[in-house]
Amino acid sequence: MLDVVRLRVLLAVARKGSLTAAAKELHYSQPSISHHLARLEAETGARLVQRVGRGIRLTDAGRLLAERAAEIIGRLDATAEELAAHVGLRSGRVRLAAFPSALGTFIPKAATVLGDAHPGLRLHLTETEPPEALRLLRAGRVDVAVVFRYDDTAPEDSGITMIHLLDDPSYLVSRTPTDGELAGHAQASWIAGCDRCRSHLLDICEKAGFEPRISFTSDDIVAVQALVAAGLGLTMLPGLALLAHRHPDVEVAEVPGSTRHVFAAVYGDPPRPPATDALLEALREALKETL
């Protein structure tokens, strides 16, 4: 069985890049760090680190184990906090990661609902796009990840439960009035967003018979709409983004067949920690009042 302390040592070495820095972070001596690594190599039967000049680097096996160690330790730390907060939701914290337009629309209301119902429960928010939010969830660094996916998005990893929150239609955003059909805009310049949105834009334009000429890329919905209003291109934005911010000089039209699905992702199957269930309920309540 792998020793958790030694996994923490390997993770610190991977993060810091040296034995000295890892020892400083963990408040160990350098010989102690070397001893733990040697014992971990003996336990696994694999060489985990190798010397390069005066420093060290992880082998392929070491990098693989360090990645898994991050998830294992994250889950252990999260479980310890969940147990500490189990008593009646009178204390503790719950952590949420979400994409920007969710944070700009229904999540502030969810925070208010949660705070009113459980005043002792602290909510920590992280703004990030879905792939990183799911990575944080797997690593135990957040308890709930509000994410979106399109019909053409690759399935999420096993172990993650997706709870449907809403369907969010996409809109063609332009400077002048238009319908939502993309085929008539094959020669236009386009403005793309995050990787997941860009991939969907490429896919839906391909279905309309052309490859979009992407002139600008930005995740900032304020900047994107300003570029459209200045006549520098077209873009596609979901309804939540337009609810969070709508430039007065742009026109929008719903794009047929382009809907993103918004989920609350949690790790594992029920029963869930009470704080996580309380947050999920607050998200549902907030959506009723926001949309």
Percent range for β-strand residues = 15-25%
Multimeric status of the protein? single chain
Rg measurement, Å: 23 Å
Distance between the termini: 50 Å
Give the fraction of residues assigned to helices.
Answer: 40-55%
What is the 3D shape? globular
Question: Could you give the order of the helices and strands?
Answer: HHHEEHEHHEHEEEHEHEHEH
Please list the strands of the largest sheet in the order they lie side by side: 4-3-5-10-6-9
- Unreliable residue runs: none
Major pleated sheet:
6 strands, mixed
What structural class do helix, strand and pairing data support? alpha/beta
Mean pLDDT: 88
How large is the count of helical segments?
A: 11
- Total strand segments: 10
List the helices and strands and how they pair.
Blueprint (H helix, E strand, L loop, with lengths): L3 H13 L2 H8 L3 H15 L4 E4 L2 E4 L1 H25 L8 E6 L1 H4 L3 H11 L4 E6 L2 H9 L5 E6 L10 E15 L14 E4 L2 H13 L5 E5 L3 H9 L5 E4 H6 L6 E17 L6 H17 L1
Parallel strand pairs: 3-4, 3-5, 7-8
Antiparallel strand pairs: 1-2, 5-10, 6-9, 6-10
Helix pairs in contact: 1-2, 1-3, 1-4, 2-3, 6-11
